[in-house]
Automatic annotation (TrEMBL):
EC category name: hydrolase
This protein's record includes keyword Transmembrane helix: no
Annotated Nucleoside phosphorylase domain residues: 2-226
UniProt keyword Magnesium, yes or no: no
Protein name: adenosylhomocysteine nucleosidase
Known EC number: 3.2.2.9
Domain of life from the UniProt record: Bacteria
MF terms in GO: adenosylhomocysteine nucleosidase activity; methylthioadenosine nucleosidase activity
NCBIfam families, per the entry: MTA_SAH-Nsdase, PRK05584.1
Keywords, ordered alphabetically: Amino-acid biosynthesis, Hydrolase, Methionine biosynthesis
Pathway: Amino-acid biosynthesis; L-methionine biosynthesis via salvage pathway; S-methyl-5-thio-alpha-D-ribose 1-phosphate from S-methyl-5'-thioadenosine (hydrolase route): step 1/2
Taxonomy of the source species: Bacteria, Bacillati, Bacillota, Clostridia, Lachnospirales
GO cellular component labels: cytosol
Record-level GO BP terms: L-methionine salvage from methylthioadenosine; L-methionine salvage from S-adenosylmethionine; nucleoside catabolic process
Amino acid sequence: MLGIIGAMDVEVAEVKKAMEDVTVETIAAMDFYRGILKGKEAVVVRSGIGKVNAAICTQILADHYHVTAVINTGIAGSLKNEINIGDVVLSTDTVHHDMDATGFGYPAGQIPQMKEFAFQADERLRNLAEECCRKVNPEIEVFVGRVVSGDQFISDKVKKQWIGDTFGGYCTEMEGAAIAQAAYLNHIPFLIIRAISDKADDSANMDYSEFEEKAVKHSVNLILAIAERYSY
């Protein structure tokens, strides 16, 4: 079974509409939509915004639904000049940019007592997503690289520069690393997909409001194509 997570209603609404034979179960104040998506068993859920919500959601998918893979779809701010609004980033790995145990000698982003600094996405899922994206969204650019996460909406060019320089990220958002960490600990393949809604700088608030719908559409089209071609 494929688990699909979006932080906001707008990120999963169209995916839910595409499902058949749907049953809904509420766990931890989250509604899990289980059914058939493009001929595949799937469960789709809005986790809510932020890393705690995202991690709880992923653990429920692991424990209650025994998913075979997790895909997190959503929108993000670009950290690179060449990645523009509407483009898509597929994760190679993910890092927490707001994890700071440097006072204990750890590098920024490193979780104390964990071997992994960055959580590696599943290569097979990523290759499938890249192939699907070039077919269903041929007019947009697809980038493959690091997704960085923190419980912050980045709308400051100085903060953006620090995150980009420190972590080498392609985009920044608020859930991916938590989902990746939970999936990693449960030995579940995962992929983080982000359509770019803003440039994570001083214009981010205005860009986000204007381009959210466009970015979400790109993500939804990609998710449906992946589900159609996904094999367990």
